[in-house]
Specification:
Blueprint: H1 3-6, E1 7-17, H2 18-25, H3 28-36, E2 63-73, H4 83-105, E3 108-110, H5 149-157, E4 173-181
Antiparallel strand pairs: 1-2, 2-4, 3-4
């Protein structure tokens, strides 16, 4: 089935001071405990644990552009197991755009909730104690660096996160990412509907 007949996707953005965002929405001690419960913890270069003070680079940026992509299935009753079929194309689109923004503006993206897209699932080099095969493309998520994505989505982007029930996807799925930078302004290409 063609993506356009399965769901719609719309991007929402908010731009704010990076120091303010970090101060209000980052709580690494709290969120590392959630990460510890994930099977990717310590098994993927896109996931914690990271070197101590690894997130200090974030404090060097003046601004952050937050992007939420709201993915709305066009039919109800889709099993939770099919979520990645809807999420993957949007993650690929976001990833491509965020890496383009890094090249255009400098800065750093924090993006990808879930597993890394660059190696087949379960084959990250970290599992063998080897360096990342794709460090130029892998960008850990906001959650991985300790940001409260639920509060970010609801308070700053106007999209409360929804969760599936009874084995079925919610009304919509939400991907949240950020672009930390020093530019006066950056332009986000609007998402498709």
């Amino acid at each position: 089935m063609d993506r356009k007949t399965e769901y719609t996707a719309q991007d929402f953005t908010a731009s704010l001071s990076a120091p303010d965002y970090i101060a209000r929405y980052r709580d690494p001690e709290r969120f590392i405990e959630y990460c510890r419960q994930c099977p990717n913890f310590g098994a993927s270069w896109a996931c914690p644990p990271f070197e101590p003070d690894a997130a200090d680079f974030l404090y060097g940026y003046r601004r952050v552009l937050l992007i939420a992509t709201k993915i709305t299935p066009l039919r109800s009753g889709i099993p939770l197991g099919e979520a990645q079929r809807l999420i993957r194309p949007e993650r690929q689109r976001l990833e491509k755009r965020l890496l383009e923004m890094e090249r255009l503006y400098g800065g750093r993206s924090l993006a990808y909730a879930g597993s890394c897209l660059h190696c087949p699932e379960g084959s990250c080099a970290r599992r063998q104690g080897a360096p990342c095969r794709h460090p130029e493309r892998v960008r850990p998520s906001l959650e991985a660096w300790g940001f409260d994505v639920g509060a970010t989505a609801a308070e700053l982007l106007g999209i409360p996160l929804e969760w599936g029930r009874d084995g079925v996807l919610p009304e919509y799925l939400t991907l949240v990412c950020g672009f930390f930078h020093d530019s006066e302004s950056v332009e986000w290409a609007p998402g498709h509907a």
